[in-house]
Amino acid sequence: MAEFKEWYSDDGRVFNREFRAMFSQCTINHELSIQEMLRLTSDVAVEDYRIRGMSTAVLAEHNILILVSRMAVRFHRMPMADQIITLSTWEETPEPLQLKRGYLFSSDQGEPLVSSISTWLLVDPVVRRIIPTKKFTLRPDITYERPHDCMEPGKIQVPQELVPLNRRPVCFSDLDGNGHTNNSRYGAYTVDCLPPEYQQKTFTDFRINFAKEAMLGDMLQMYAAFDDAGRKITVVGRKVDSGETCFESELYY
Fold this sequence. Notes:
mainly beta, 12 strands
């Protein structure tokens, strides 16, 4: 029976977790799904902070909510069902208004599978105001960088011409402990709205911007732009009642 480890490396800067990609986490093609990658990266970041004494309960006591803002992912080789994988994460030197965190999925042979960078906002949950990262004093200042073998998690430029696709209600099982749609669900929203011929593409990169929380009962209308020459798909999810954008994403193939 395999035993899966968790450990710190690089003088305690990098948190590592071993796991096996399970059948239920994978797509019809037996590849680890994008929504599962988003969930796993979020979970490992939360666990890293918990071990360091910054659990969600401790953060709440200090009126701090940490929300993922943007993310970029590069697929070097898609993780497969039943594969043993190491997911590594590390916090990098923050920006004035955003924390920054890197991730690497690698095989048990050390082969890079997926690289990713994300940015996170510190929010006061009472007044719903962004907290500058210099005021985040629950842990020592971070001054650490590693090379990034993926795109930057920058602002997504949405084309003017968008095609309406499906609508999707926000259901109870989409919500997390913050009371809004968990960030990983938007990965599913992105892929599920695509026509079948695009769902079967071999994707090389994925980027997503989170804009507005989607709450229970919201109905999201998905829109997309298909740039076949640039081999890129842009997907936008907006609330039907208000027209507010909840997320914007890009898939490259």
